[in-house]
Each structure stands twice: as structure tokens, then as C-alpha cells.
């Protein structure tokens, strides 16, 4: 297995973990999660055929989208807690 193939697999697992967490804690809208799942499926198929840096960069973009939203949720929750105290 090439380094790029291992990277695709790792990014795919991380993205799936983030989506499960998002669903469990309702961090994102169902539409956003569904859109990301569809993109991840396309990327999984693309990585199986032809691995490229563009595919890896797409995984990075999708995980960043989820992570940035999570960071915003945590920051908002923390600010609410501080204001409420």
C-alpha cells in the first residue's frame, strides 16, 4: 500500500469518526452531515482508483469544515457558561 493510499484510509477513518461524533452530539445539521458523507463516498471511490494530492486535500477540507464548526460550538458553549455564571 502506498503512502497516499494509507493517508486516504486514515483521513477517511478520521472523517467518519468526526461524523459519528457530530451525529451523537448534534453538532451539525443533518443536511451538512449527509453532504459530507456523500463527498466522503466519492473520495473513497476516487482514492481506490487514482490517489492524488487533490483527493487528500479534499479530505482535509471536509474535516476542517467539521472541526471548525465544532470549535465554534465549544467556544459558544464556553462563552454562554461564563456569561451565565
Keywords:
85 residues, mainly alpha, 0% strand
List the helices and strands and how they pair.
Elements: H1 3-25, H2 30-49, H3 53-84
Helix pairs in contact: 1-2, 1-3, 2-3
Helix content: over 70%
Order of helices and strands: HHH
Structural category is: mainly alpha
**Cα radius of gyration in angstroms:** 15 Å
What's the number of helices?
Answer: 3
Can you tell me the overall shape? elongated
Ends: how far apart? 53 Å
Main beta-sheet strand count, sense and barrel state: none
Into how many domains do the coordinates divide?
A: 1
Beta-strand portion reads under 5%
Question: Taking all residues together, what is the mean pLDDT?
Answer: 79
Low-confidence stretches: none
> How many beta-strand segments?
0
Explained architecture:
- It is a single chain.
- By secondary structure, this protein is an all-alpha fold.
- It has one domain (3-84).
- The protein is 88% helix and 0% strand.
- The protein has 3 helices and no strands.
- The chain has helices at residues 3-25, 30-49, 53-84.
- It is elongated, with a radius of gyration of 15 Å.
- The termini are far apart.
Amino acid at each position: 500500500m502506498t503512502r497516499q493510499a494509507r493517508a486516504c484510509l486514515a483521513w477517511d477513518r478520521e472523517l467518519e469518526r468526526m461524523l459519528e461524533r457530530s451525529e451523537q452530539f448534534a453538532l451539525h445539521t443533518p443536511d451538512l452531515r449527509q453532504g459530507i458523507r456523500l463527498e466522503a463516498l466519492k473520495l473513497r471511490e476516487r482514492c481506490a482508483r487514482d490517489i492524488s494530492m487533490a483527493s487528500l486535500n479534499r479530505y482535509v477540507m471536509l474535516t476542517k469544515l467539521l472541526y471548525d464548526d465544532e470549535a465554534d460550538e465549544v467556544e459558544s458553549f464556553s462563552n454562554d457558561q461564563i456569561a451565565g455564571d
